[in-house]
Amino acid sequence: MGSLQCYPYPDYLNLSSLLNEEQKMICASVRDFVSRDVQPLIREAYQNEQFPMSIIPTLGSLGLLGGNLSGYGLPGMDAISYGLVMKELERCDSGLRSFVSVQGALVMYPIHTFGSEEQKKTYLPALASAEMIGCFGLTESEGGSDPGAMKTRAEKKGKEWVLNGSKMWITNGHLSKIAIVWAKTEDGIRGFIVPSDAKGFKAKKIRGKLSLRASETSELYFDDVKLPESALLPHSQGLKSALACLTQARYGISWGVLGAAEACFDEACRFSQERILFGKPLAAKQLVQRRLAVTLSRITQGQLLALRLGQLKNEGKLHFAQVSMAKQNNCELALNAARECRDILGGSGILDEYSSMRHSNNLETVITYEGTNDVHLLIVGEQITGIPAY
Fold first, then answer.
1. Residue 315 a catalytic site member
2. What integer pLDDT is reported at residue 1 of this predicted model?
3. Which DSSP state fits 285?
4. Do residues 114 and 248 lie in contact, with contact meaning Cβ atoms separated by under 8 Å?
């Protein structure tokens, strides 16, 4: 009879036995870094609505920025290793995973995939080392789930592009030296590398968030921003190029939210064994055991889904609708797990010395951004029926 591992890192089906040594090593090194260098900072960062800037150089030196990309000095880690990285980061806070996800999947990936050789050599090493921070400008205030309705435009005037418009909900916007901006042109939607110091470019921090507070979020404004021809990502073609970037990020989210769910489960398990109620540990109560068992079952299902997704990605067989299924399913289970675990903590669950309510608040954003819960269900629904219902 094999032993069962429930917490602190729930692995009820012993999925870790399916990992190779390199994957285990990467997972352990990120876990150690997060526990040592980030976890002590995250409460204050969340309270102050500020990303812990001091950790950014280490994110670069550990090879976590664009870690799944190859060439140009990049690590080229496999898809499962990359997923494990996302999970270990979000075990601490969704804002930490968001920073790494945006830098790699939404800034470096489009340059790596749609950029010129000169753009790759210029930007990818600097972004990987964290010498340069970037952001991804697709969403607009009136766009949301309909990115094709964007109003931002880039007009070709002689040998220059002139960019006008705005973007909303942009992670790292006011921290960035470059922005990957998607705009309508006479040839359709194209991607551009826009320096943040360009005349007419303005980034404004969004304040007052009740979720994802340890992440920096901005509005971007472009007022006759003049760009050279070389700013265009030459191989970007239409909205599908922007959505391909989102598929990369959504893959990471599908893994990442499991880390948040696992952290909440761990916390609730520990609390229920230490909290004495009516002369017995809270964990001895049938209702609590049922809630923990259901939560663990859901987490385990999400782990299986993420692992299979990683296998398909490694084989080059991953379809974007499969990513939508995983993003929707795992975000929903993680949010439900965080809420359930917060409730098990009772009144203590509203204190910031515990993480479940912070995770729950963060996951309200994660279940919404990069495709809402319902939109991802409709993507899967279209694959089932062949009929788009947008």
1. no
2. 45
3. S
4. no
Beta strands 153-157 and 70-71 are: unpaired
Question: SS3 helix, strand, coil % of the chain, rounded to 5?
Answer: 55, 15, 25
- Cis before 125 (ω within 30): no
Residue 89 and residue 27: Cα distance in Å, rounded? 10
Please check whether residue 191 is in contact with residue 242, taking contact to mean a CB–CB distance below 8 angstroms: yes
DSSP state of 117: H
Spatial distance between the Cα atoms of 21 and 40, rounded to a whole number of angstroms: 28
- Joined together, the tokens standing for residue 311 give 């296998």
Name 164's bridge partners: 153
pLDDT in tens, 331-376: 999 999 999 999 999 999 999 999 999 999 999 999 999 999 999 9
Number of residues assigned to the chain: 390
Q: Could you give the CA distance from residue 84 to residue 80 in angstroms, rounded to a whole number? A: 6
From the list 22, 229, 370, 382, the catalytic residue is 370
Q: Are the CB atoms for 183 and 245 separated by under 8 Å?
A: no
How far, rounded to the nearest angstrom, does the alpha carbon of residue 184 sit from its chain's CA centroid?
26
The DSSP bridge partners found for residue 203 are 220
Structural tokens at position 184: 């309508």
CA distances from 362 to 121, 148, 275, 335 (A): 35, 27, 26, 9
Could you please report the per-residue DSSP string of 34-93? IIIIIHHHHHHHHHHT---GGGHHHHHHTT-TTTT-EETTEE---HHHHHHHHHHHHHH-
Chain segment 270-324, per-residue pLDDT in tens: 999 999 989 999 999 999 999 999 999 999 999 999 999 999 999 999 999 999 9
Can you tell me whether residue 116 is helix, strand or coil? coil
Tokens representing residue 72 in the block: 């140009």
C-alpha to C-alpha distance for 86 and 311, rounded to whole angstroms: 16
